[in-house]
Amino acid sequence: MVDLSIILAGFGDAFSLTNLLFVLFGVVLGQFVGAVPGIGPIMAMAIAIPFTFALDPLVAISFLVGVNKGGLVGGAVPAVLMNTPGTPDAAATALDGYPLAKQGKPLKATKMALFSSITGDTFSDIVLITVSAPLAVLALKMGPIEIVALMIFAFSVLAGLIGNSLTKGIISAALGLLVASIGSDPENFTPRLIFGYWELFDGLPLPSVAIGMLAISEILRRMAEAHGNVQSAINLNMTDNPDDRRVSWAEYWSCRYTMLRGASIGTVLGALPGIGSTAAAFMSYAFTKASSKDPESFGKGNIHGIAATESANSAVVGANLIPLLTLGIPGSVGAALIISAFMIHGMQPGPLLFETQGRLVYGLFGAMIMANFVNLWVGQIGLRFWVRVVSAPESIIFASALLLCFVGVAMATNGLFGVTLMLIFAVLGYVMTSFGYSLVIFIIAFFLGPRFEKSIAQSLALTKGDLLQAYQSPVALALIVLSVVSFFWFLKRGRTEES
């Protein structure tokens, strides 16, 4: 277990003035990009990663966490005001948020979304802080064979849960692993698939792949869908009743069981790689509606509907870091970007992180708690301002984002070669999205590829080339069986849905 002095030192680092300012900046930026439909915190995180090179590791990762947390709060604003979710997570929030706004209560709806989001987020952070260290100790007992089996199981679950086709999910994962193999062989350091470009000897640069597939490809898709139309401003009428502009303590307290249920659902689903916050939000909404004494009121402006969705989707953020910190497996694109930030700063997420970088880990935990309070404060002040943000022309937003992408990647890769790679992966990302292939699975497979290959090599060395000896490990055997079961279950489910 981690020494108490390391825990206290980590929390002390988190509450420094520099860290506080960057968390504040990250939350403000996250709420801004979340409030503008089509951008979202994922794109902002991808663009911001190269600009964190010069920062202290804790400050850089805290900033990215602030962007991620702020984006979930900001995403609820256009969902409530325009019935257009700023992020996919907020799609369920629009079901009751927009009807409530049409009744002249937009501030009540957005404030309920804010309070519920902070509640769910804080709940999952507490679970992360209390369970991650014991899980890391347990994970240290896993050898290379168990790691290989675990990753195979993760890929099978991700391929089945993300997207509508298991086949396309497997193809995306295989393509991600193929791209991850570009560069030098980890055993013999011989070049592979570099085609004479020695700039690729160390592998593809993370910023080029992440920004190209997540940011540039999304901008291209949004620009193609715009057809020259510019988003117009919104007009909402507010009532003169001051009670319609706030959430009273009685109203908040009446939703306590709804938020607890949503936070629990979000935490459990967030700890499982690949399910995501959108599924958690809709599942929480369905449970809340089914258990309500007045289910007919849902969809017509019930604040319990807002509380259910926002507490669930925000709880996923902290829970996504449980598999990341304990096993080194990202559970979402946001977690994959955070893992890339760890690697950029020379750290490998996983169970050893608690031993080698325990102070940094608990500094990150402190920053996450601090980001929740900053999120609440900024949201309270900025809700009226974000109403203006949602009417910003997309032409200005996307032009600025493209400029930041080019500058950031050029800085991170020391030249235009990385920018060229970014554009190549932007086109690849656009094509994959157009044909229904998951970018999430591709990116997670790309990040896990080197570790997966290294674990296979170590397993072959331990078993002298006979991987059938894996049956001697009960954990590995159980994970392989679960992988096969999940594969056939998702395959059967896909065929049922098609028929």
Describe this structure in words.
The protein is an all-alpha fold and about 500 residues long. It is built from 20 helices and two strands. Strands 1-2 form a two-stranded antiparallel sheet. Strand 1 and strand 2 form a beta hairpin. Helix 11 packs parallel to helix 13 and helix 13 runs parallel beside helix 14 (about 335-345). The longest helix is centred in the N-terminal third of the chain and has 34 residues, at about 105-140. It is globular. The chain starts with a helix and ends with a helix. The relative contact order is 0.19. The mean pLDDT is about 80.
Structural Rg: 22 Å
How much is the average pLDDT? 79
Q: What level of helicity do the residues show?
A: over 70%
Helical region count?
A: 20
Largest sheet: 2 strands, antiparallel
The total beta strand count reads 2
Largest sheet: spatial strand order:
1-2
Strand content: under 5%
Describe the global form: globular
Which structural category do the helix and sheet elements fall into?
Answer: mainly alpha
Distance between the termini: 52 Å
Sequence stretches where pLDDT stays below 50 over 5 or more residues: none
H/E element string? HHHHHHHHEEHHHHHHHHHHHH
